[in-house]
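This section describes the prediction task in plain terms. A model, or a person checking by hand, is given the sequence of a single protein chain and must write out its three-dimensional structure as a string of tokens. No templates, partner chains or ligands are provided. The sample shown here is typical of the held-out split.
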Amino acid sequence: MILIEYCGICGTDFLKYLSYPNTTDWGHEIVGKLIDKHGNMRNRVTLRSTFPCENCEMCLNQLHYNCRKWKRAPKNGYSEYIAVDNKCVINIDAQDDDLEYVLVEPLNVAINLVKRISPSKDDKIAIIGNGSIGLLAVFYLSLIGCNNVSIYARTPVGIRSQVAEIFGAKTYCYSEAAKEGVSKANKIINTAPYNTMSEIINYANPFSTITFNGISENTRVLLDMDVWHFKNITISPSFPHPQDTFFEAVKVMKLYKENLKLMITHVFPLNDISLAYELMKYKKEEYIKILISGQQSSIMI
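The expected answer:
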């Protein structure tokens, strides 16, 4: 049993709020306290959102990231308590006020996106989308010495652009600059909806590498195979995520949590969750990561 302290709202949650199809469980960016069978509070934990089956040929050969029978951990982080599979629980060495650990799950996604493109310091990297995963990808790229990074976003102003610049990347308007920017990059991370993949392939350089983790109302997207084939583009999806990078994400968070605190812009109590979603719907430039807690009044960080 987990006593939930904070849960981050992610893009999948927002799409479910908008009644999009292809969305499942609410609230998977969780920090809380483990409660044992006797009702005693134990250590603080975060939770992974997926886990491999451990029994298939891929898992038995330590290729967990290729598991075809992976499972999504059922959970609802917008509640006081949840029961979860022990496989999902990851211990964290955190204090009660370390809100940043809700970013472990999206940081894990960002780390995997970065690793999929095998970046080097000389690469020109374009990131599509300036949500939390895009910004965390910029942050992780800076840690490994990749500083030639640009972000392309529908809303290139506000707090997201400010944090992107602190992390080492300029933000440009996607509709105006994406064609030129993507065509200059040799590595591309797409965190925007799936339906942007076709135009990204059209813009992309020959022999470039693209990875993606977008979410979309329609997960079936038509790609121009002729362009893809003759440009010799490598496309490497990031999901399901390798499991070992959750622990790397925890380690990065422990070392750099003060830097990443910038990304948590709002905290709402559980009974004001509708206000959080309204903020997401109408004022995208004003927030990055919104948390839901059990507190009784809204808080702006």
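For orientation: The first strand starts at residue 2 and ends at 8.
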